[in-house]
């Protein structure tokens, strides 16, 4: 499949948490804990024409990943979970759906929070 948007997450569980929420094909790439400038560039080289979205945990390691990623791809978009959840994997799917929808992704209706 072809995509013009790529979401970068820290681990496989983060990817598995996001995939069922999306109602469109989006490439989701896991850093799997190995994170350096060179590694980022190698991972994302096949997707140079895509728009990047970094969705890292709200812990110390996630903040380090976000800072490094931003230095390599300053034009990238950053998605955030609430610090109370700690990480993407622990975030309720309804909240993740809202974050993704607010960023312009198509999400499945069943995951959206009610407005009331």
Topology:
Elements: E1 5-9, H1 12-18, E2 27-30, H2 37-44, E3 51-55, H3 60-72, E4 77-79, H4 93-102
Parallel strand pairs: 1-2, 1-3, 3-4
Structure in words:
With 116 residues, this protein is an alpha/beta fold. The protein has a single domain (5-111), classed as Dna Topoisomerase Vi A Subunit, Chain: A, domain 2 (3-Layer(aba) Sandwich), CATH 3.40.1360.10. The chain has helices spanning 12-18, 37-44, 60-72, 93-102; strands spanning 5-9, 27-30, 51-55, 77-79. Strands 2-1-3-4 form a 4-stranded parallel sheet. The longest helix is centred in the middle third of the chain and has 13 residues, at 60-72. The mean pLDDT is 91. GO terms for molecular function: ribonuclease M5 activity. One of its GO terms (biological process) is rRNA processing. This is Ribonuclease M5.
The averaged pLDDT comes out at: 91
Would you give the CATH topology? Answer: Dna Topoisomerase Vi A Subunit, Chain: A, domain 2
CATH class call: Alpha Beta
Span from first to last CA?
Answer: 37 Å
Structural category is: alpha/beta
Poorly predicted sequence stretches spanning 5 or more consecutive residues? none
Evaluate the radius of gyration.
14 Å
The ordered H/E elements are EHEHEHEH
Instruction: Give the domain tally.
Output: 1
Instruction: Describe the global form.
Output: globular
What is the makeup of the main sheet?
A: 4 strands, parallel
Strand content: 5-15%
Summed up, the helix count is: 4
Extended strand count: 4
């Amino acid at each position: 499949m072809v995509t013009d948007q790529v979401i970068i997450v820290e681990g496989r569980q983060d990817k598995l948490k996001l995939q069922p929420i999306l109602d469109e094909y989006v490439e989701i790439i896991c850093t799997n804990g190995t994170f350096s400038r060179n590694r980022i560039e190698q991972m994302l080289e096949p997707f140079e024409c895509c728009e990047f979205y970094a969705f890292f945990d709200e812990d110390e390691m996630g903040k380090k990943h976000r800072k490094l990623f931003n230095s390599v791809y300053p034009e990238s978009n950053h998605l955030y979970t609430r610090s109370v959840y700690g990480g993407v994997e622990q975030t309720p799917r309804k909240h993740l759906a809202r974050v993704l929808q607010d960023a312009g992704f198509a999400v499945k209706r069943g995951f959206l929070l009610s407005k009331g």
